[in-house]
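Note to self: keep these together.
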Amino acid sequence: MEDRDVRRLVELGLTGYEASAYIALTRRGEATASEVARIAKLPRQRIYDVLEGLVSQGLATVKPGRPARYVAAAPEEALWRKLERRRAELDSLEGGIAETIERLTPAYRAGRVADDPLRFIEVLREPAAIAHRFAELEAAAEREILVFTKPPYAIDPAQNVEGLRLLERRITARSVYERSVYEHPAQAEAIRAFVAAGEQARVVAELPLKLALIDERVALFTLEDPVPGTYGLTIMIVEHPSLARLLRLAFEAVWASGEPFA
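Structure:
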């Protein structure tokens, strides 16, 4: 059997067994079911079903008798007819698919805009994931970023490369630091480099939490473990303008109470 011919017939809509049986029949003027099974190397228990399939598709005829004998239809006629039927089936399928698409599309589009009550909330606890996500949010800033910064840092000030890139893009950046940062000369020097690059910075004695507000659209803040003597950090990221505007009021109050970073 030519594997290529079998593949072509399968592409036309025949099963593999039907394709092999048809090719076997084309090599005989007529043949019994047993002969076709032997030539095509098909299971004898399946051969009658296979041959009936060929007959129903117009690819073979059967001569009654004992045993019945099968004759292949001429390939030039039978295969072109099969192709035309295949085309008609595909045209019908195309029309049905178009109708189905038309019915499903409105619900699909509505589902894309439907509000999931929690879709704008993201929770992170793993330090590396927190640092990566904060860098992404910094990179996505378009106008402004407001930050409360206090230790421990997910990203050490000296390693905040994305923060410098943000300043290079002329994004307004205002940060409030806890006064304890002066106890760490390397961190304080890194902050001075940010200030030189355009960051506005102030210091206060203590901050209630870590906070970042981006474009008055996204709020990132910390929820520390309230159990004394333990340290666990949960970061909440909420993409909700109303909450961002509320937290901005808190930021502005703390900013007004701070002193310029020296």
